[in-house]
């Protein structure tokens, strides 16, 4: 027996009104923010938040003997990524490709 998969399917559960369905679905345009974010337990900042009073402590390590800074992309790379030296400085393999 062939089945028409394009035919609309109706069951007894489909009798709910549009208003009942709208009440169950949260409004995407509302200003409510889900503060129970399991992936970020320390909280989160919204874009445009004032962070002027926040102090950041960052440890900056001096350049290591086996590292160089690419003169093209300005990323710190391992010496194994060195392709060649230019008049501006060392260049990594990705930038010279």
From TrEMBL:
Record-given protein name: DUF4193 domain-containing protein
Species annotation: Microbacterium gallinarum
Source organism superkingdom: Bacteria
Pfam families reported in the protein's UniProt record: DUF4193
Listed Basic and acidic residues bias regions: 1-12
Stretches the record annotates as Disordered: 1-23
